[in-house]
């Protein structure tokens, strides 16, 4: 191996210490169910197991007096723009240059049959009485996982595209119908606001590949647009709680209704007003419960609730109960609306 990747002060290929130590590793590597190989102090391969030979596409020629050159096949970074790695940039070369273990480095192995394998490469030192005598490396084949990830991203992108088109179509139909029926502009604004809130929540889930999403992110996304460009008017804090898709979409609509009402009639309708949203996980009997408290302060005096609940109030109460088996208490305190929501933790799988 050239000087650019040589190691300082190691046991060496011919050292009895080195050869004895490396020999003790061979049987163990042969029993491993993962691709593994041994390098001597100069970085040359002195042994590889069957799994490694299968992954490389052939067994490197290994003899005691003429170890195999690294790498047995060409190696690339996973970035398509990168070319073959130079000897000093391979995982073993990196280890030889730095003396530091290599952990989960993603590379591409080019096989002798023309195929390619995407692998996670690891290299760890082997020492004897404090002296570095070689290294052990292993590969984890993640080709199928990367292929599945790519397919999943493609499907999610297609799903997102179709949902956006569907929402745009619904918005167009609603706009035409509302104008034709002579309903007030406020009705159209309310409907479009709900569609936008739903679309925004869907975008967040899509960006996160429909993985659980943080409750704080949902609150900020739904309430922020109603704060008039002043993020300080929303004070949100609580335990780390991640929500599944159903809970995220439902709570996005609930927070949108509360925020829209606050912007029209409550604390967010005046410059001095603000909203506090706090949440925690509490034990209520044998059922862990997520308690969320919405509280408005600094707004105009709250009027008594209307005799007949509007759509927004019904959505907050009934939507939470129907979708998440939760309960909602609305307190029309003159100093500011307070909404307390209790949701079983089991209804928010995240």
TrEMBL record:
Residues 103-154 form the PAC domain. InterPro entries: HATPase_C_sf (IPR036890), PAC (IPR001610), PAS (IPR000014), PAS-assoc_C (IPR000700), PAS-like_dom_sf (IPR035965), PAS_4 (IPR013656), Sig_transdc_His_kinase_HWE (IPR011102). One of its GO terms (molecular function) is ATP binding. It comes from Rhodoplanes elegans. This is Blue-light-activated histidine kinase. Gene3D superfamilies: Histidine kinase-like ATPase, C-terminal domain, PAS domain. It is an enzyme of class 2 (transferase). CDD domains: PAS. It comes from the Bacteria.
């Amino acid at each position: 191996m050239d000087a650019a990747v040589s190691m300082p002060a190691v046991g060496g290929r011919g050292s009895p210490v080195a050869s004895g130590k490396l020999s003790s590793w061979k049987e163990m590597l042969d029993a491993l169910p993962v691709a593994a190989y041994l390098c001597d102090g100069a970085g040359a391969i002195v042994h590889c197991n069957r799994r490694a030979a299968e992954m490389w596409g052939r067994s490197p020629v290994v003899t005691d007096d003429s170890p195999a050159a690294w790498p047995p096949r060409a190696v690339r970074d996973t970035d398509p723009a990168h070319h073959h790695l130079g000897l000093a940039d391979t995982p073993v070369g990196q280890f030889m240059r730095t003396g530091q273990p290599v952990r989960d480095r993603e590379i591409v192995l080019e096989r002798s049959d023309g195929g390619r394998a995407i692998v996670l490469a690891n290299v760890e030192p082997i020492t004897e009485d404090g002296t570095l005598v070689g290294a052990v490396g292993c590969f984890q084949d993640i080709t199928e996982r990367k292929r599945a990830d790519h397919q999943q991203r493609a499907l999610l992108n297609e799903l997102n595209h179709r949902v956006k088109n569907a929402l745009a179509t619904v918005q167009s139909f609603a706009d035409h119908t509302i104008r034709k029926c002579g309903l007030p502009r406020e009705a159209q604004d309310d409907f479009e606001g709900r569609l936008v809130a739903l679309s925004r929540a869907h975008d967040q889930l899509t960006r996160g590949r429909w993985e659980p999403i943080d409750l704080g992110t949902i609150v900020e996304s739904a309430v922020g647009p109603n704060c008039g460009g002043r993020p300080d008017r929303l004070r949100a804090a609580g335990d780390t709680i991640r929500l599944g898709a159903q809970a995220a979409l439902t709570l996005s609509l609930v927070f949108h209704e509360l925020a829209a009402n606050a912007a029209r009639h409550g604390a967010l309708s005046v410059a001095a007003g603000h909203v506090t949203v706090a949440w925690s996980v509490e034990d209520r009997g044998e059922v862990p419960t997520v308690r969320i408290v919405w509280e408005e302060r600094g707004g105009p005096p709250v009027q008594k609730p209307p005799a007949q609940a509007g759509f927004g109030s019904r959505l907050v109460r009934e939507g939470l109960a129907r979708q998440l088996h939760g309960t909602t208490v609305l307190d029309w305190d003159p100093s500011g609306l307070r909404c307390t929501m209790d949701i079983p933790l089991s209804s928010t799988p995240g």
